[in-house]
Amino acid sequence: MTFAEFFAANPIVLAVIVFVFGLIVGSFLNVVIYRLPVMMEAEWTAQCRELLEISPPGNTPDNTAGQPQRFNLAVPNSHCPKCKHEISAIENIPLVSWLVQKGKCRHCQTPISVRYPIIELVTAIASALVAFHFGFHWLTLAVLVLTWSLIVLTMIDFDHQLLPDDITLPLLWLGLLVNSFGLITSLQSAVWGAMGGYLMLWGVYWLFKLVTGKEGMGYGDFKLLAALGAWLGWQALPMIILLSSLVGAIVGISLIAILGRDKNIPIPFGPYLASAGFLSLVWGNEISGLYYGLIL
Question: First-to-last CA distance in the chain?
Answer without folding.
Answer: 46
